[in-house]
Amino acid sequence: MNQPVTVQITSKEPPVSEAMPESLEPRCSECHASLTREQLKAALEVCPHCGHHFPLNAVERVAQLADPGTWREVGGDLQPSDPLDFYDSRAYVDRLAEAQLETGLSEAMLAGVCRLGGRRVALGVMDFRFLGGSMGSVVGERFSQLVAAAIDEAVPLVVVTASGGARMQEGILSLMQMAKTVVALDMLADHSLPFISVLTHPTTGGVLASFATLADVMLAEPGALLLFAGPRVIEQTTREKLPPGFGRSESSLVHGQIDLVVQRRDLKRQIAQLLALLEGGVRCDIEPIRPDSEVVPRGSGSLAQAVARAKKLALTSRGWLFGRDQQDRDPT
Amino acid sequence: MPSLPGVGYSEEINKIEIQLESLKGRKDSAGAAWKTVQLARRQDRPLALDYIKHTFPDFAELHGDRLRGDDPAIVGGMATFDGRTIMIVGQQKGHDLKERQFRNFGMPRPEGYRKAQRLALLAQKFQMPVVTLVDTPGAFPGAEAEEGGQAGAISRTLRVFARLSVPTVAVVIGEGGSGGALALALCDRVYMLENAIYSVSTPEACSAILWRDAGQASQAAEALRLTAVDLYRLGVIDLVIPEPRMGAHKHHRATAKVVARQVEAGLREIEAVSPEERLRARRRKFLAMGMLAPADTKL
Ligand SMILES: [Zn+2]
Fold first, then answer.
1. A183 closest CB neighbour out of B162, B234, B299
2. Which residue of A250, B170, B217, B267 pairs with B185 in a disulfide if CB–CB is 3.0 to 4.6 A?
3. ipTM higher than the 0.95 cut
4. Residues with Cβ < 8 Å from A330, sequence gap 6 or more?
5. Is any Cβ of chain B less than 8 angstroms from the Cβ of A15?
6. Pairwise CA distance, residues A298 & B276, whole Å
7. The whole model's pTM is what?
């Protein structure tokens, strides 16, 4: 028997819902209500009738989250290369050039430092239009530089994901970006700086299985597909049709994989509030626990006496409980 | 070659590099990558438990993730090695259909990754180096695994290994399939057997996506650059471990011996530096991965 063919870190699924077509009479792909561009724009690209969240590109997302005039790009000069000299039905360099032309972006993640609700943050935003938001060397490096900027300026990190997973055309180097982003986050953790990830439709494969799920707080937009493997692969493996809503944000919430499902109109406010709470913890320096013998009750009066009594009692019971240990420690 | 300051092992490395040179010519011939894929997947190839059997006579297996279950696709436990206890964590595919079904063809579920995390942290508590044996087509893409948090199980395993204060060595012994393999390979040293593969996706999947035809797997295997020599050239692994003539499947014991010697040497090298420097070096190693266009290039 052949083992089942599996796909993990791949960008194989076509985007399930396309951005609104620029046709004469656009309709919502979910409820089929007719919509105008103006209506949609006013509703932040969310269908006013059924609440379906249409994909945002990175620039639109930054415009919705960053306070006007505060954006300073990080790692913007990084350019992709073709390390494997990869060619399938087309050359990778051609695909890259076309993606750059179509999106106006240099890569699948836009990174920068800005204010969000008045609070300084390091903000990364992925763009699914750029080769399925796949994570190649530039995305990994830009992410690391963004983390470095967050550490430099002692500000929290917020990353909005939209990705099919790994950049197949960069092969193993793409896989290594998972490790790279995890290591970068480890350095952020050294500085106790908060990290909030916002998972949007779709976030799958290597992005979900690396930095996206290592956030202190994980938010998701409604209806976002959040899976390690794609639905088609899962159906092939289990040979069963998946129930509707499988792997969507709401299901992930029920299964304990994310913290909150947040409507797009509430997203900025929600992030700002969470950051305020995450950063507002009283920094309580807890004294290391020392052996009882070093503890000397301070002060005087009945409280100190009570403490001393309690200590004595504790020591007595310790000696009784751990008699052998005590003997080992003080051979008299 | 990336290496830490410390105990030198240059003579051995030179020897292997010479062998490597002789391999390069062979690997460039057409279809070689696909042949390697087939070798790496052979059922009679030594698997994690074979290496354990031949190398660690006092291996004590430990089970369970303490949350939900025990995943037979990931085996782990302690053993004495080179005068101290080490922790071994490996992916096990199985030699026959019955074992392969029991082991889920070496495709771990979240429970398996949580077991790996638990054992790694246990190793850290008692200052044991961790050795991982990587051999999986990938993490299991099942509905239950998804709902059980497969993605998060992998990312958290990566985080645990990124932070471990003890020395870590990974050996890709067969198939290193995407994130499910990487989860056990964020280590101070990453070695690969000569006929092992390590890639971002299976060639079949890659071909189905990019060529829209799973029949182009052989072509995809070439394009993905997934052989040990390819990965060495790309700076992803530290060393190629040569296999005995005709391949590892012909000589389990001899292969296990070569792997054991290399792991022993690797661990001694890493143990020679302080935990702080070790952590810094591990971070440097993985932060350096990837390839960018030179500054001010425009496509
Ligand atoms: Zn609608």
1. B162
2. B170
3. no
4. none
5. no
6. 37
7. 0.86
Asked if residue A67 belongs to a domain, the reply is yes
Distance from the A123 Cα atom to the nearest Cα atom in chain B, whole angstroms: 20
What amino acid occupies position B222?
E
User: What's the token pair of residue B128?
Assistant: 């044991």
Q: Are residues A49 and A156 in the same domain?
A: no
Instruction: Say if residues B76 and B90 touch (Cβ distance below 8 Å).
Output: yes
Name the phi and psi angles at B176, rounded to 5: -105, 90
Nearest to B60 by CA among B42, B76, B47, B72: B76
The alpha carbon of residue B62 and the mean position of all alpha carbons in its chain are separated, in whole angstroms, by 20
Q: What is the pLDDT of residue A93?
A: 96
What are the structural domains, with CATH classification, of chain B?
43-288 (3.90.226.10)
Q: Which residues of B touch A182 (CB under 8 A)?
A: 155, 158-159, 162, 186, 286
Does the CB of A178 have a partner CB in chain B at under 8 Å? Answer: yes
Mean of pLDDT values over A302-314: 67
User: What pLDDT, in 10s, does the model give residues B117-165?
Assistant: 999 999 999 999 999 999 999 999 999 999 999 999 999 999 999 999 9
H or E element in which residue A226 lies? strand A226-227
- Measure in Å the smallest separation between the Cα of B178 and chain A Cα atoms: 6
Do residues B231 and B198 touch, judged by C-beta distance below 8 A? yes
A246 and A134 fall within a common domain: yes
At A238 the pLDDT is 80
Residues A180 and A66 in one domain: yes
A42 and A80, same structural domain?
Answer: no
Residue B116 token pair: 């790996």
Min distance A144 CA to chain B CA atoms (Å) = 8
Which has the minimum average pLDDT: A13-17, B92-96, B231-235? A13-17
Residue A5 lies in a domain: no
CA B206 to chain centre: 20
The beta strand positions in B116-258, using DSSP E, are: 130-136, 168-177, 189-193, 197-199, 239-241
The size of chain B, in residues, is 299
CA-based nearest residue to B113, from B169, B164, B74:
B74
Range of the domain at A25: 21-54
3-state helix, strand, coil in chain B (%, to 5): 50, 15, 35
Q: Are residues A151 and A238 in the same domain?
A: yes
